[in-house]
Write a structure and sequence with these properties.
Strand content: under 5%
Shape: globular
Radius of gyration: 24 Å
Structural class: mainly alpha
Largest sheet: 2 strands, antiparallel
Number of helices: 24
Low-confidence stretches: 483-490
Mean pLDDT: 88
Order of helices and strands: HHHHHHHHHHHHHHEHEHHHHHHHHH
Helix content: over 70%
């Protein structure tokens, strides 16, 4: 492999990452749950500075480093815009009564003991239909979090169930961008990729559902701070709840299924939530603005405030009020800062070939079936940690290993399945990755808290590695499939 400057030693390549891990560990001990308030961002920036100094020492010009940082940040702009729009959508869906309505009816439809199981299934089906884990978590996921919280289930546990289901659907949906990207990197078609993924995914999801079902059956619901009846009464007293409200999420899901890009779809969803608030919740509009007589002015201010800033609706019951608060776009700014800092780190690691040097070393362990698949899986996870972007966790290993899989006689779907099983689903487990940063902010649960319960997300790479270790369902190129290639080269 060629390097942009002098080839770094393995220790030098690892040094920024070692410093980052030390700083992040210190931050957790000192700031606990408040690490996203700035300390983690600064840790990433300091690590990026160290990487930039190393790049310069390797002969890389500053303009090259800067351009790589800009290019890396540019790749994350879509994620940042989606994140900001999710903030707006959560605000208008709250004041319109959409989320409270989903909670209200959900409390009747889902029995507490099977709630976690149902949360995985519901999130999975919606994500499968839409192809987007982010949209699923920001809409249905937020409602499920409210329902589960009202039942007295811990938020990290609920978040783990929602994330498990949402990333299952994202991974298996032909509408998903990652599900299209992985086979493109490996050199196979999407439907071969999806059919082949079904084998490992069925095992991972089956185990996930069993685990959540067992947890639900044995959960202590007596610890709930409020009763279901109390929550329903508070919602009914505060909001006007009717079935017309569900037109808003229905339209959004239809738009996404029809392949409308997520940015305009989420914008339309946020605006529809604002319109529904004006029509169905005039008392809420007046409560949050304090304007009683000029409803046109109150409507404009109320919807705008819900989209950009803090909203807290009081029900008269302090134990329930935390279900009905949101921070709009403003609440996403710390996460945007985190993503920008992470992209800066990823850009400096790429500019001098530091990331390339480390992944190249990992690839040396690929000598047989299980070491090849394991090396690919660890490379995907490593790129998620260092480059902080789930797309790069598919692109970088895909480009690295495509020829190796071919030379060792494996069909490209073996690579594409490993990429998805290890790259797509683990991005949400890294606090500074775009996936982890976004979902922790949307659900209001720190990544380190929901990580232990995101069973599907870490069972997936384990399952794909175990299939390789046991030599189960590993497709090899047959001699007759190699023959045309040999004739072409003769």
């Amino acid at each position: 492999m060629e390097y942009p400057g002098r080839k770094p030693t393995l220790f030098i390549a690892f040094l920024p990452l070692i410093i980052l891990i030390i700083l992040l560990t210190l931050n957790v001990f000192i700031w606990r749950d408040a690490t996203l308030d700035g300390s983690n961002q600064l840790a990433l920036i300091i690590a990026a500075m160290i990487a930039a100094i190393i790049d310069l020492s390797l002969g890389i010009k500053w303009n090259t480093i800067r351009q790589e940082i800009v290019n890396t940040i540019g790749k994350s702009m879509s994620s940042i815009l989606i994140l900001l729009l999710i903030g707006s959508l959560s605000g208008t869906w709250l004041i319109s009564g959409v989320v409270p309505g989903l909670i209200y009816y959900g409390l009747d439809l889902i029995h507490p003991k099977i709630f976690l199981f149902a949360a995985v299934v519901i999130s999975g089906l919606v994500s499968l239909a839409t192809g987007s884990s982010w949209s699923t978590i920001a809409t249905i996921g937020v409602a499920l979090l409210g329902i589960g919280s009202a039942m007295g289930i811990s938020k990290p546990l609920i978040a783990g169930a929602i994330i498990s289901g949402a990333y299952f659907g994202d991974k298996m949906s032909p509408l998903s961008d990652t599900t299209n990207l992985a086979p493109a990197m490996a050199g196979t078609d999407i439907f071969t990729h999806i059919r082949y993924m079904t084998h490992t995914t069925t095992v991972s999801m089956g185990l996930t559902l069993i685990i959540f079902f067992i947890i639900g059956l044995n959960y202590n619901f007596a610890a709930a701070p409020t009763s279901v009846a109390q929550v329903k009464a508070a919602i009914e007293h505060t909001f006007t709840i009717n079935l017309w409200l569900f037109l808003v999420p229905t339209i959004l899901i239809i738009l996404i299924v029809k392949k409308m890009p997520p940015i305009p779809a989420l914008m339309i969803g946020a605006v529809l939530g604002g319109i529904a608030a004006i029509i169905f919740q005039p008392h809420i509009i007046r409560q949050i603005t304090g304007i009683q007589h000029n409803y046109a002015k109150a409507s404009y201010i109320g919807v705008m405030q819900a989209m950009y800033g803090d909203i807290k609706i009081t029900t008269g019951d302090p134990t329930i009020d935390n279900l009905f608060s949101t921070s709009g776009m403003r609440g996403m700014l710390l996460t945007v800062w985190l993503i920008l800092s992470a992209m800066m780190f990823g850009g400096t690691m790429s500019a001098g070939g530091l990331l390339q040097r480390i992944t190249e070393e990992i690839a040396k362990f690929a000598r047989n079936t299980w070491t090849l698949v394991t090396s690919t899986a660890f490379t995907c996870i490593f790129v998620n940690i260092t480059a902080s972007d789930q797309y790069l966790s598919l692109v970088v290993p895909g480009q690295m290993y495509a020829d190796t899989y071919k030379k060792m006689g494996y069909k490209p779907e073996v690579l594409s399945r490993t990429l998805e099983d290890s790259g797509t689903v683990t991005s949400v487990l890294v606090p500074w990755n775009t996936g982890g940063a976004t979902q922790s902010r949307v659900l209001g649960v720190p990544t380190v808290q929901y990580l232990p319960y995101s069973f599907f997300n870490y069972l997936s790479p384990i399952t794909t590695i175990m299939f390789a270790v046991l030599n189960i369902d590993i497709r090899r190129i047959e001699p007759e499939e190699i023959q045309p290639t040999l004739q072409e080269t003769s």
